[in-house]
Every structure is written in structure tokens, then in C-alpha cells.
Design goal:
Organism: Mesorhizobium australicum
Structural class: alpha/beta
Shape: flat
Helix content: 25-40%
Protein name: Acetate--CoA ligase family protein
Low-confidence stretches: 245-257
Keywords: Ligase
């Protein structure tokens, strides 16, 4: 039994406090909770119509769940008494704990005392509203909510948020999403978001899980959650806030400006097979789709509407997404065309025109022909007229035709309204009962389809290795930055592909070194961070005179010179960077490199360890990738060598994870086939008290 079992699915509830506590009692009664409800109050004999008890000691038994709605000091006393009594768990409503540390020196101490008082008894919060169990009618919730109890034998989704107000708003949705459980996490003083989620997905009445995340409580906890969700076939949607957060202050590297904490969070969720959406409406719609269909088997969509305008909007909505509307093959197009008049141009998305409107047999034939194409999700764009001013009779003929088409082809289908208000809530339950997912808004519908398709893809892939968090934790206060010659010496020692180079103290030494290395060469000023920005590098020097001239220009800019053989036959430049994330450890960024790296921002973030397949998939996702494949007759790149180099660099970082704060390879020059990939520039930042 999960440690939160009694708290999440209680048979008895104890309630402590005043106004909020009375609301908890009233809400549980209103929802038809069949178990015992025991209010506790020092002076009142009755709370919300139920007999009140004076203290924890006076309760008839050890409650499965308790709502503690008293001040922060008294909360600690009540929690200690509940734990000693053997209660199953408690929601701590009071604020004034760790969240106030910036202005209240007592907050952190009181939170530690609260956790100590709870001992082994699970607590949720503090500083949270608590839990609504719509499956059993148990509410540890001190406010209004807009949800309804699940029908006997019914199922719904579970939602956890780190905002009580967002939680309330979600219960007020009129989009037809059935909710089985809703929780708020609060400060997560003892029980983290991932542990709450693990408790919820074990319930057979839960079909999918939605998480509103401000911060991850535990990398290992989320990995356990994702693995268990995959076993139970219960998909997870996340809305991770923080995209607008300023990228962490770049110390010296390009990577630091690209790889903020949000990029790492996104990479972590992708690795776990948790789909990420960016808005509350998309969050609701994605959960609804997953509740009905589960993860989608692929990314192929169809769309039907009786308007060319709607068909165009649907087509545009797929731009830049993995989900797409594939072109119909000749056989399929002919099949659909045979059901329509000669003036209809058959395509996907399909504008079937109004010729067959309200002709149910004709619509059934067209819809059945279109859906027969083996799409992963079939969408019918349909906005209902206002029921207070218009008739909706004709619309149900269209719905019956679509329902028939889906059943004939054993296919997934969704009704998509272009405007949310044009799909009344009272129709949603009927549509879902008929196997049609009501999706509100075209953009939100596409977000939902992409999320469901992503999870389907992720679950077909091998489960990722646990994230290497050995380098997690706060960065040291003092950093050292070896110069390029020192950094490259370490990379060469690790067996990584670095062009031959030598340090030079003056122009004469630079000329001698360049002659030994062989022309052409690159000459760089050492001790300069962003060389191209201050003119601290000269490339493609082909003779001793040009090296001497460049050396005299560069010497005043740095602490010495570095002469290096030029890399020839370059096809593309990549950036391969690593930064230390406080939670995830060393995080890798791959992207388009060179001087325009931050302007183009064509990059992807990966957790470590990363397999060769992970690296190749990341490269293929870059806008740059066509260059590697020989864009418009250009030479093809040595892709295998690039992957080898990136994997080797990642291995070097993992082996030195406790020492490296940042590593910026920009560029990694990828040459034509058979010519390799070479580290042209390297910036290494070491942690506190580390030696080169």
C-alpha cells in the first residue's frame, strides 16, 4: 500500500480550525462523503452540523486524513498529536513557513519543526489548500470548487498544482474534463510532488495525470513516477512554469546564455516521456484527449470541415509541429472523391463543402472514406450555434455520421470547435460517451494531439537511463578559467579530436610553430574569452609573413599566443556545451555554432548520460541539419565522426563532473565524409579550488 493511501482515499476525516475547517466539513457533506467526519474545536460543540471534539485525544479514533486549518504554531502541535495517535496523514493549510524566509527568520525553523513533528505520518503542504477526491466525495478543501463527484464506476484524471488558485480555477472549467482527484502541493516540506503523483496514479479510477510544476522535488522521484506511469499505461502532462525566467547569468560561455534552467527542465521531461504544454487551456485539452484515447500511436492527423477557411486554419495550425496532415495517396483520394460531388477538391484537411450538409447517409459515406486512411487522430471541425437563439438539430446528424465513421474504422476521433464558447459544456459528456473527444480551440486541439502523440512515441522507445546527477548542487564560489592551450591539452589527453597546436610567446615563436605544424594555421590570443568579438583570432594564415603580422597584432590582446593547424573541408559548425545545473548536474547543449550562436538560438538540451541515438536525434532536430546531409549539392558531413566527438566530449564531462562548471566547444567543425569532426575552440571553467 502506498504511504499516502489513507490520506488520499480516507474513510474518516478529522478537521481542525475555524472558518476554513467548517467549510471542509460542509463540502465533504455536500459531496456525499460516506465516511466519518470529526470536527475538532476547543469551544464549539457543533461544526457545520457535526459533533465537535475538543482535541486529537478526544477523537473516536485515529483519522485516515486530517485538515489542519489553525495558525502555524498550533499546526505543529496538532500534527505532532495526530502522528502520535496514528493518523494516516494531514493537510497543513497555514502559511508562514519556508515560503516566508526572505522576510521572516522564523519560517525555515518552523517548517523544520513541522516535519519533525510529523515523523513518519505524511503531510501535504504547508501553505496549501489540500485535496479534493471526487471519486469518493472526500474533500480536505477549505473553499468553493466547481467540480462534481464521479459517477459510480466512473473514471477521471488526477491533477496536482503548486498553486491553490490555479487549482480552484481548474475545477471551474466548463470543458467537460472529468476530474477524479485534485491536489495542491504547497511547500512540499515533507511529501514532494512526485510522491503525491505516485499515490494518485495507483488508483484504478485515474486515467491520466496532469502536473503544474514550479520546481521539481526530486530527480529520482520523477524518474520513479515516469516509470510507474509507463507500467500502468497512465500518461502524464506537465505545465512547467519558468519559460520567461531570465536565462542564468552567462559567466563566460555561449552555452550559459542558451541553457537556462527551463531548457534543462524541458529536456528532463522529454527524457521521462512526460509531455509539456504551455497554457492552462492546452493542459485541460491534452488531459481530456488522453483520458479518452490514451497516447496516440503516431503523428498523422486528418481534418474535415464544411469550410475552406476552417480547412486552411487547420492546415496552418500544424506548421512547425510534429503532428501533421499527410497528403492523401491516389487510392484514398479517389475513395473520398467518389462520395462527393465533382466540384469538391479532395485534400487533407478536407473541405467537404455544404453540398452534403444535413444529409446523414452522404456525410457518413464521406466521413467513413476519409477516416479509412489509418490516421492516428481524426478531427471534425464543428462549432455549434447558440442554443438560446438557434437550432442545433442539424448538427447532431453530422455527429452521428462522424461517430459511425469512427466505429467502422475503429479509429480515434475528436470534435474541434474553433471558438471555445461554441462547444457547450452540456454536450461534452454525450460526445465522450460516443467516443468523440470534445476539444476546445484549434490551437489547443493541436497542442493536445502533439502531446498525446509524443507520449505514444516515448513509450515505444527504450526507457532512458537515470540522469547522472553526480554534478548536481550549487556551484562553487570561486572559478578558474584555464586558457585555450591548457583546456585543449586536457581534451587531447582524453583522446578527443583536437587539431595540433602549440603555445607561442612572441611572433618569432609563432612563425616557428606554424612552420612545424604546416600551413595554413590559425593564430589566437590566449586569455581572451570571446575572441571573435575583439578580433583576437586570425584564420587561414598561409605563410610565415602573415603569421608574423598577425602575431604582432594579437600579442597586446591577451596573455600569449596559440598556433593551431587549420581545419579544412568544414561543412558545418556546431556548439557543444555543458553547464552545471543545481538539480540535474551536467547538462549538454547542442546547436548551430560559430559567431551567430546566440542570435540563431538553434539548439537543443540533453541530460546525461546521452546515447549515440540521443545525440543523433538531437542533431536531426536542428535547423542546421540539412547542411550535414549535403544541402543543395553541398558535400555531406561526417555525421558519424560528429556523433563520436560529441559522445566523447560528454564522456569527458561525466568523468570530471565534480570539477567542471562549464565547457564550451564552439565551434566543433564537422568536415566532409571521412574527414572527421574537430574541436576548433574550447572554453573550460573549473570549480572552486580545482587545479588544471
Amino acid at each position: 500500500m502506498h504511504k499516502l493511501e489513507r490520506l488520499l482515499r480516507p474513510k474518516s476525516i478529522a478537521v481542525f480550525g475555524g472558518v476554513q475547517a467548517a467549510a471542509v466539513v460542509a463540502q465533504s457533506i455536500k459531496m456525499g462523503f460516506a465516511g466519518e467526519i470529526w470536527p475538532a474545536h476547543p469551544t464549539k460543540d457543533v461544526v457545520a452540523g457535526r459533533k465537535a471534539y475538543r482535541s486529537v485525544a478526544d477523537l473516536p479514533g485515529a483519522p485516515d486524513a486530517a485538515f489542519v486549518g489553525v495558525n502555524r504554531h498550533l499546526t505543529i502541535e496538532v500534527i505532532k498529536a495526530l502522528a502520535e495517535r496514528g493518523a494516516g496523514g494531514a493537510v497543513c493549510f497555514a502559511a508562514g513557513f519556508l515560503e516566508t524566509e526572505a522576510y521572516d527568520e522564523d519560517g525555515e525553523r518552523l517548517q523544520s519543526e513541522l516535519v519533525a513533528a510529523a515523523g513518519q505520518m505524511p503531510i501535504i503542504g504547508p501553505n496549501c489548500y489540500g485535496l479534493i477526491n471526487y471519486a469518493d466525495g472526500a474533500l480536505l478543501w477549505p473553499d468553493q470548487h466547481g467540480g462534481i463527484r464521479l459517477e459510480e464506476g466512473g473514471k477521471g484524471v488526477a491533477i496536482i498544482t503548486q498553486s491553490s488558485n490555479i487549482a480552484i480555477n481548474m475545477t471551474m472549467q466548463k470543458r467537460g474534463l472529468p476530474i477524479a482527484f485534485l491536489m495542491t502541493a504547497g511547500n512540499q516540506a515533507q511529501t514532494g510532488l512526485s510522491e503525491m503523483a505516485l499515490g494518485l496514479i495507483e488508483d484504478e479510477r485515474v486515467t491520466a495525470l496532469g502536473l503544474h510544476i514550479e520546481a521539481f522535488d526530486s530527480v529520482a522521484g520523477f524518474e520513479r513516477l515516469a516509470a510507474r506511469a509507463r507500467e500502468l499505461k497512465k500518461p502524464i502532462i506537465a505545465m512547467k512554469v519558468g519559460r520567461s525566467e531570465q536565462a542564468r547569468q552567462a559567466t563566460v560561455s555561449h552555452t550559459a546564455s542558451l541553457a537556462g534552467s527551463d531548457a534543462a527542465s524541458g529536456a528532463f521531461l522529454r527524457r521521462l516521456g512526460i509531455a509539456r504544454v504551455d497554457s492552462i487551456p492546452s493542459f485541460i485539452e491534452a488531459l481530456k484527449l488522453l483520458h479518452i484515447t490514451g497516447p496516440l500511436p503516431g503523428y498523422k492527423l486528418s481534418s474535415m470541415s464544411c469550410s475552406g477557411g476552417e480547412a486552411s486554419v487547420m492546415a496552418d495550425s500544424a506548421e512547425g509541429r510534429w503532428v501533421n496532415f499527410p497528403v492523401l495517396n491516389d487510392t484514398h483520394r479517389a475513395h473520398v472523391k467518389s462520395t462527393l460531388g465533382p466540384l469538391v477538391a479532395v485534400a487533407n484537411p478536407l473541405d467537404y463543402h455544404t453540398f452534403i450538409w444535413n444529409n446523414e447517409p452522404a456525410m457518413t459515406a464521406t466521413f467513413t472514406a476519409m477516416v479509412s486512411g489509418g490516421f492516428d487522430l481524426n478531427m471534425l471541425v464543428l462549432d455549434f450555434p447558440r442554443p438560446d437563439r438557434c437550432s442545433v438539430t442539424d448538427w447532431w446528424a453530422t455527429l452521428r455520421a462522424f461517430e459511425s465513421a469512427l466505429k467502422t474504422n475503429k479509429a480515434h476521433g475528436a470534435i474541434v470547435s474553433s471558438l471555445p464558447e461554441n462547444l457547450p459544456e452540456e454536450y461534452t459528456a454525450e460526445l465522450m460517451a460516443r467516443g468523440m473527444v470534445p476539444l476546445f480551440g484549434i490551437s489547443e486541439a493541436m497542442d493536445a494531439a502533439q502531446a498525446a502523440a509524443f507520449i505514444g512515441w516515448a513509450w515505444r522507445e527504450p526507457q532512458a537511463q537515470p540522469v547522472d546527477t553526480s554534478a548536481s548542487g550549487a556551484a562553487g564560489g570561486n572559478h578558474s578559467t584555464p586558457d585555450e592551450a591548457q583546456a585543449k591539452a586536457r581534451l587531447i589527453k582524453a583522446g578527443l579530436p583536437v587539431p595540433k597546436g602549440e603555445r607561442a610567446g612572441n611572433a618569432v615563436e609563432a612563425v616557428i610553430s606554424s612552420m612545424a605544424l604546416g600551413f595554413p594555421v590559425a593564430l589566437k590570443a590566449l586569455g581572451v574569452t570571446h575572441k571573435s568579438e575583439v578580433g583576437a583570432v586570425s584564420l587561414n594564415l598561409k605563410d610565415a609573413e602573415s603569421v608574423s603580422t598577425a602575431a604582432h597584432d594579437l600579442l597586446p590582446l591577451g596573455t600569449g599566443l596559440y598556433v593551431e593547424r587549420m581545419v579544412r573541408d568544414g561543412v558545418a559548425e556546431l556548439i557543444v556545451g555543458f553547464t552545471r545545473d543545481p538539480m540535474f548536474g551536467a547538462v549538454m547543449t547542442l546547436g548551430t555554432g560559430g559567431v551567430l550562436v546566440e542570435l540563431l538560438r538553434d539548439s537543443v538540451t540533453l541530460m546525461l548520460p546521452a546515447t549515440r541515438d540521443d545525440i543523433e536525434a538531437a542533431l536531426r532536430g536542428l535547423k542546421l541539419f540539412p547542411l550535414l546531409e549535403g544541402y543543395r549539392g553541398r558535400p555531406k558531413a561526417d555525421l558519424a565522426a560528429a556523433i563520436d566527438a560529441i559522445a566523447g566530449i560528454a564522456g569527458f564531462v561525466q568523468e570530471n563532473a565534480g570539477e567542471i562548471e562549464e565547457l564550451d566547444i564552439n565551434p566543433l567543425i564537422v568536415c566532409s565524409e571521412g574527414k572527421g569532426a574537430w574541436i576548433a575552440d574550447a572554453l573550460l571553467v573549473l570549480g572552486e579550488n580545482k587545479n588544471v
